[in-house]
Design a protein that fits this description.
- By secondary structure, the protein is an alpha/beta fold.
- The protein folds into two domains: about 120 residues, Leucine Dehydrogenase, chain A, domain 1 (Rossmann fold); about 130 residues, 3-Layer(aba) Sandwich (Rossmann fold).
- Helix 2 links the parallel strand 2 and strand 3.
- It is globular, with a radius of gyration of 19 Å.
């Protein structure tokens, strides 16, 4: 079996097109422009690149983009005062504080300061609770992107046996909740799971998100399974001295022999994260104004 390669880059472009269309309708029919505010504390190079990408893509789909860059030594009170202003600003529908933040700041307290209705990263306790109890939550972007890819690939997920490797608050737990809502039978596996390879072999849907390069071997994959690789590890390039390459949590070549479909790294899940951030911002905007939510952009 040779797996179908799931093109996350192309699908993310489709999501952005849908977002742009809905943004245009909100402007034309209601005079509303969805607004996304991103807060960056410090000068982490990777974070700066990511924030620039968010700004560029927000502008490309017609949103208002508000960037707030603060010095690395910004006190917590000053950061919270900014978040409070953004919470109260009707032009801002989504707020994201780029992590990691400097050591003197607490990520949990920072997330908790953001109005849950504007928490487009879906990290707040309120949104996690709403997701777990079937409420109207804003969902963490990467799990939402994975769900979209699975629905596109498989259609109805009802009755599928899904295994998620990883139990983080950022990905594993919300991914499990999303799969449950789509009527999958879900196992969340982790570092202490007994006989992890055997657990994985029963999965119709196998999702790896542990950050361990090529941990999932080909013989862990059930023939015909759909494999979603969320992991990203940078390693020395085998053919280009001094260069690096990105690989995932799944041994791609091996797994492709058993899987029916698989995401590559890079080009699989990664592009979906910002696309879903934009989708969440549109959803938050619609909810704030009591308007119909965009079809195909929510969980």
């Amino acid at each position: 079996m040779s797996a179908n390669i799931i093109d996350g880059k192309a699908f993310a472009a489709t999501v952005r097109e849908k977002v742009a269309g809905h943004v245009a309708r909100l402007k034309d029919e209601h005079g509303i422009t969805p607004g996304l505010a991103v807060v960056l504390v410090g000068e982490d190079p990777a974070s700066e690149v990511y924030v620039q990408a968010k700004h560029r893509q927000a502008v490309e789909v017609g949103m208002a983009s508000f960037e707030h860059k603060l010095p690395a030594d910004t006190p917590e009170g000053e950061l919270f005062a900014l978040i409070d202003r953004l919470n109260a600003d009707p032009a801002v529908h989504g707020i994201l504080c780029q992590f990691p933040v400097p050591d003197h700041l607490d990520e949990r307290r920072t997330v908790a300061r953001i109005d849950p209705s504007k928490d487009v990263d879906g990290l707040s306790v309120a949104n996690a609770g709403l997701l777990a109890t079937g409420g109207e939550a804003l969902v963490s972007c990467t799990p939402l992107g994975c769900l979209m890819l699975l629905r596109d690939q498989l259609g109805d997920l009802t009755g599928k046996d899904a295994v998620v490797i990883g139990r983080s608050n950022l990905f594993g737990k919300p991914m499990g909740q999303l799969l449950l809502r789509d009527n999958c039978t879900v196992t969340i596996a982790h570092s202490r799971t007994r006989d992890l390879p055997e657990v994985c072999r029963r999965a119709d849907i196998l999702i790896a998100a542990v950050g361990r390069a090529e941990m999932v071997k080909g013989d862990w994959v059930k023939p015909g399974a759909t494999v979603i690789d969320v992991g990203i590890t940078r390693v020395p390039h085998p053919e280009k001295p001094g260069k690096t390459k990105l690989i995932g949590d799944v041994a791609f070549a091996e797994a492709s022999e058993n899987a029916a479909a698989i995401t590559p790294v890079p080009g699989g899940v990664g592009p979906m994260t910002i696309a879903c951030l934009l989708a969440n911002t549109v959803t938050a905007c619609c909810r704030a104004h009591g308007l119909a939510e965009p079809e195909g952009l929510t969980a």
